[in-house]
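Renewal narrative, Specific Aim 1. Our central claim is that a sequence can be written position by position from structural information alone. The example that follows is taken directly from our test logs and has not been curated for this report. It begins with the structure tokens describing the chain, in the order in which they were read.
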């Protein structure tokens, strides 16, 4: 049986993201060196940007909401699946969530994005697979809804927003991160997830 540790991989990611983000918010030059730039990834071979962009955020509210979601979902998920599996889900969700943007903007020198939202989406949807009966409350709806229903609404919204809304948010990364989180979770523990959802749907 897994036991909750005082300090773990999930705690390290949480603290590191907050520390690096706060430093970057005070030093614009440092922030720009870590931001995701499809052009620089493809044409300058700066593949590390796929990782470092997840450590910085655009402002305090961006950082707050991502880390709040991390706090409510990541630690319980890490406890349920193990720290190593959690790390795999998080890192792959972070890296692969960039792929749609990488393909779309590979020749756009001026495009930039940042934040851990792709990885957070992966963790959120992995958690939904493990805990489909949990309830999630999100703004502006003040009523908790089953996590499975929330997941469907979230994916539909991301797809709609990516196509119709120009708000500066990389909605395609949110959607891709969620899909990666689902796929990687199934690869890591397919039998457990099938059993959980059979019980959920019965």
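The sequence written for that structure reads:
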């Amino acid at each position: 049986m897994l036991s909750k540790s005082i300090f773990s991989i999930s705690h390290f990611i949480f603290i590191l993201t907050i520390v690096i983000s706060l430093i970057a918010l005070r030093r614009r030059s440092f922030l720009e060196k870590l931001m995701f730039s499809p052009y620089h990834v493809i044409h300058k071979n700066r593949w590390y940007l796929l990782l470092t962009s997840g450590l910085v955020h655009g402002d305090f509210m961006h950082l707050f909401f991502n880390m709040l979601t991390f706090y409510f979902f990541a630690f319980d998920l890490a406890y349920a699946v193990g720290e190593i599996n959690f790390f795999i889900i998080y890192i792959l969700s972070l890296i692969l969530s960039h792929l749609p943007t990488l393909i779309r903007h590979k020749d756009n020198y001026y495009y930039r994005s940042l934040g851990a939202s792709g990885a957070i989406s992966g963790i959120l949807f992995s958690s939904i697979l493990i805990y489909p009966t949990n309830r999630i409350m999100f703004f502006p709806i003040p009523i908790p809804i089953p996590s499975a229903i929330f997941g469907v609404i979230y994916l539909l919204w991301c797809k709609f927003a990516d196509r119709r809304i120009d708000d500066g948010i990389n909605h395609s990364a949110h959607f891709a991160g969620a899909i990666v989180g689902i796929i990687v979770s199934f690869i890591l523990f397919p039998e457990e997830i099938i059993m959980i959802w059979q019980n959920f749907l019965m």
